[in-house]
Amino acid sequence: MHDSTADVLVVGAGPYGLSTAAYLRHHGLDVRIIGTPMEFWADGMPPGMYLKSEPFASSLGAPHGGATFTDRNPGWNTGRPIPLSTFVEYGRWFAGHLVPYTEDARVLRIERPDGIGDGPFEVTLSTGEVARTRAVVMAIGVGPFAHIPDELSALPGDLLTHSMAHRDFGRFEDQEVAVVGAGQSALETAVLLAEAGARPQVLARTERLAWNAVPLTSPSPVDRLLRGPASGLGRGYRTWIWSEHPWTTRLLPDATRRHLLRTTMGPAGAWWLRDRVDHRVHVMTGRAVTGARESGGRAAVTTAGRIGSPWEHEVDHVIAATGFVPDLDRIGILAPELRERVRTRHRAPVLGAHFESSVPGLYFAGLTAAPSFGPVMRFVHGADFAARRIAAHVAAGSRAAAPPEETVKVLDGEGQAAPTPPHAPANPG
38-50: buried (b, 16+ CB within 10 Å) or exposed (e) per residue? Predict the structure, then answer.
């Protein structure tokens, strides 16, 4: 085991981690990014999945032009869904050109030995190394925060899983599977189950399924006036504010922010998925799950509607497509004494204007920032805003920050040009 130092260490190599590292490197900082680029997207999601976001809203954040999704895929226009594999390829291309020194390791523990001071963090890696760094950016994605409702918690693990736990639905061939939820994850999971030969039934609390509208590829002036401007979260004036100016969300009262998170981009299926939800998928709306139990090796799920008697659905397996809820206590790599120093509200960290927590030098990006900066932080589109803010703040407070290095301004479509790294980490891995 040996020690090394860096200006800043980024935990996670997904869209938020890669974007933040790209901006930090642009500021001339010595950056280490721990994780395999796009690993969760490549290994933790079904191969047949498509992104819900439009191409223009599916870009990682870069400090210069030529690195957006549509730069890399110029033929991908609004109204053409992006396959998961295409997005993963784009993310890895981005990493190879803007963040080439990612480290294929795991962070095991983050602590600050000086307690309440502002000394360096010590980060223990799976390689046995202990890295010392002035700042840590937590860009860990949604993985630790899979939410399963209490009403389902009595089921054993072999009968109940979260939707994020599956890549191959072939194991459910000829089985009855209940999918709990009404959003994109639930509906796409049900479709993929049906295509794998299962018999899925969707249990949705909402009275009717909601579907996103087909995007307007060439909106008229009247459409733009009535429906509002397009943004990363859709079309509409308020949506544009939450999407393109997330700093405004942080200024709102806590109750208003929570309401925005619940109601903005609520459960709905993508327009391109609607035709695939056919006779093979049994959809039951207006059914709230009230309990579940094991019955003869199968799962018995009880639901209730607004009227009528409760129903019991006996199935071979239950998949909870019930989203993700940020919870600081689930971030086990933070030492307990460090977690205790992070101010929270509703279990999520309370963040300043630059995504810094109450612990100086400890930043949070992505889903954990959504309670502070609003719903856009649940999507790839929020990565650029978060990365710019975090990098500028870290650079401003770093005595070691150097002037920005010269970087390649435009990357060609074949990915032949690559920026020169300002610093290689102490242990590239």
Answer: bbbbbeebbebbb
What tens digit of pLDDT does each residue of 208-244 get?
Answer: 999 988 876 666 676 666 666 777 777 777 888 888 8
Q: CA separation (Å) from 264 to 168, 247, 370?
A: 31, 16, 12
The mean pLDDT value of the chain amounts to: 88
Angle between helices 15-26 and 84-98 (to 10 degrees): 20
The 10 Å CB-count burial string (b at 16+, else e) for 91-115 is bbbbbebbbbbbbebebeebbbeee
Q: What is the DSSP string of 63-85?
A: SSSS-SHHHHSTT--TT-PPBHH
**Least confident among 228-232, 281-285, 321-325:** 228-232
Number of neighbouring beta carbons within 10 Å of residue 325:
17
Helices (H), 228-278: 237-244, 247-250, 254-263
d(CA 324, CA 341): 24
Query: What's the token pair of residue 361?
Result: 């030098």
Grouping H, G, I as helix, E, B as strand and the rest as coil, residue 117 is: coil
Question: Would you say 63 and 26 are in contact if contact means Cβ atoms under 8 Å apart?
Answer: yes
Tokens at 165, concatenated:
């736990």
* Tens of pLDDT, residues 179-194: 999 999 999 999 999 9
